[in-house]
Amino acid sequence: MHGIGRRDIVEISYLYYNEGKTQAEIAALFGISRFKVSRILKKAIEEGIVSITINDPMSNLIEMEIEVAQKFGLKKAVVVRSVAPNGETLFDQIGKAGASYLNRIVAGHKILGVTWGRTLRHMINNLEEMKDGDLRIVQLSGGVGNIEGTDTNVLTMMLGQKLGARPLLLQSPVVVKDKHTKTALLQEKSVAEVLGIARTTDLALVGIGLLGRQGLLWQSGMMEERDYRVLKKTGAVGAICGRCYDINGNPCVSDWDDRVIGLTLNELKRIEHKVGIAFGLEKLAGIIGALSGRYLDVLITDEDVAGRLLSDLYETTENLSHAKPQRRKGNN
After folding, report:
1. Could you tell me which of 176, 210, 182 has the C-alpha nearest to residue 289?
2. What is the side-by-side strand order in the sheet with 274-277?
3. Helix axes 189-198, 179-186, angle to 10 degrees
4. What is the pLDDT of residues 235-289, one digit of tens each?
5. Distance between CA 332 and CA 321 in Å, rounded?
6. Third-level CATH fold of 6-46
7. Which CATH number fits domain 59-310: 3.30.70.20, 3.90.350.10, 3.50.50.60, 3.40.50.1360?
8. Which residue among 71, 289, 308, 309 is least enclosed by CB atoms within 10 Å?
9. Given this model, what pLDDT does residue 88 score?
10. How much is the average pLDDT of 75-88?
11. Which residue stretches of 54-105 are H helix?
């Protein structure tokens, strides 16, 4: 810069960053414009005269969030500590993070779709009360029964109370015994109407279900040993809305899928803003599959999962360590 030497750049930087002088005050001292002071401060950073360090333990989580979002083409990632310094459980941390995100972005949406899960219940418990008379809340799938307050009907009504919105309930289990029962239920006017509205959802909150004995589908009695064996043979690693998919995000075709009441994975994918809330390495394979299938636009998880997602090799509890998700293009 003409008339400004390196010593001047250092002095201006010192006055601004160390002494707390304003750009206007510095401009007056040097007889230059505020615009020129701004350019000098920018140049000081570019030339390495000034380096900015954020001295806060949260900064590495923010960095992970940005890297996860960029790697998988997400609108946003939210990462919490796997072990909280204040002794909070991961359920509490994830619940608060999810609630904070939803409270920020829910305004302007018309239809909020919800699935089921323990993590979603903790998120709803931490929501700030709002009044959005234009918002409707709809179930994206049938229910699993009320296990620790995780049923979709219960969660939908809780959300309605917290957000001051109208809940629309899908009076059906997520899985029925056979195709004929499913066909009969889908012909019921109330079921058909709710599913029709669910297909117009513009914001969705989804959990990622575990298969096997740890998952709610099993604990509710809806998934039996035979179902589990068949789904594992198809490569299933997780479920959203009761719909199972493999590590690459491909839907798992089986008799199970023919009996599910709820949106299909392709219908889910078309929702504009899909927020997935899941944590724990036991769900890593399911999270990878959901990201690969583009079933999520936002991921809220813990730092252990985020670290694995950013590593070169994925290691899961189900021996899927060499599976890698396909990189997504864009944010949709």
Report:
1. 210
2. 76-80, 298-302, 274-277, 203-207, 111-114, 136-139, 166-168
3. 80
4. 999 999 999 999 999 999 899 999 999 999 999 999 999 999 999 999 999 999 9
5. 27
6. Arc Repressor Mutant, subunit A (1.10.10)
7. 3.40.50.1360
8. 71
9. 82
10. 86
11. 59-72, 90-105
Q: How far apart are CA 255 and CA 265, in angstroms?
A: 16
Q: For helices 6-17 and 23-30, give the axis angle rounded to 10 degrees.
A: 140
Amino acid symbol at 65: E
Chain CA centroid to CA 92, Å: 15
> What is the value of pTM for the model shown?
0.80
Rounded-to-5 percentages of helix, strand, coil across the chain: 45, 15, 45
- For tokens 């509490």, name the residue: 92
The answer for residues whose C-beta is within 8 angstroms of residue 133's C-beta and 6 or more apart is: 164, 165
Q: How far is it, in rounded angstroms, from Cα 141 to Cα 243? A: 9
Place of tokens 């990632």: 77
Residue ranges per domain, the chain? Answer: 6-46, 59-310
